[in-house]
Amino acid sequence: MPRARRFSPPLSVGVLLSGREQFIPYYGGALARWTYEVYSRLQDAVRVTVFGFPINQPHTYPLPHETTGHWRTCQVVSCIPLARRYEEKLWLRALFPRLRHRDVLHIHNRPQWVRILRSFGYHGALVLHLQNNHLGHWSAPMLDELARDVDRLAVCSRFLFDTFAPRSQALCDKTEIIFNGVNTALFFPREEFREAKTILFAGRFAAEKGVLQLVRAYKRVLRVHEDARLVIAGSFGFGRDEETSYVQQVRALADRITRNGKGDIRFTGYLHHDQELPSWFQRATIFCCPSLFPEPFGLVNAEAMACATPVVGANRGGIPQVLGDTGRLVDPENAGQFAGTVSELLSNAAECRRLGRAALIRARQFFDWSEVSEEWIAFLHHLSLHRST
Fold first, then answer.
1. 202-211 confidence digits (pLDDT tens)
2. Full domain range(s) for residue 172
3. Fewer Cβ within 10 Å of end Cβ, the chain: N or C?
4. Does 186 reside within a domain?
């Protein structure tokens, strides 16, 4: 547990999840997980309440969670073309009586909410926390205006910082890079489970994640390692195993590859993050993250690293910063380079072990949730000192 600094009296923090993200392990995403993993470790230092849409599942994250009956109205408004632009303002207005007296409001991934909450008359500290590139298209005046309204900005990688930093020194001065994390009590090595020549993908089953490129590269890997196995873990959305046209395209290619008894491609469908995913990382020989878009961080990479599984990742976005020198970077659209890198590692067990050990050390040093929690409480402490002067 982190040695959390205490506030006197304790800070009251309201966390605003973006969109309709569910505050639950099975259906929730990275923002819900970040909120639980960090604030559950800081309950002796701050009083936190998470605000979001209703949860109808019994197994929610065990932190205080509140909503408002106006969520039904917001859903209706979101379906009306000319009215949907007002949905977020309506949602925040409904929550505002319970937000206005919080010392800090922690906003996930919604920079436009900063101005809305100030317009409602919120005078406490506003913290904006970005894990996606929401500011990359903002002009310099827009960024400077955001800097006037927000107290602090946290981003999950240097890559994300660089998407806006050249255009606003004022916002840079309020920004800190705080990595995402991994639960090392769940994600840890089990070498007795390790399987030979097993390539793993885990993530959202969508075009920008590069699943099709991975299957194409795997076809080339089979020329060198005909006993290699590919596991594709994940689905189109959280808890949704939908057969989209893209999923069908990937499956069709997989069927063509394995039709004559060549190769072995398995589709697991959606996996429970805490209960099922760790064992797949522990079993894999190599983890591949072939994202075609610039991932701001790529949490699955840190989870693989914590299991001492070497990562072959896309050379874009925040992935290079996450891997450091503990993995291999490739252009996922260069099938020859991608397949060659994977084949080389499958041929060199000693190098896989070396990279895995280095990745494990890096994950525990930088990405353990306890370390992230220490950084976050220091971030809040700095915020508190700044506002008191």
1. 999 999 999 9
2. 11-181+368-388
3. C
4. no
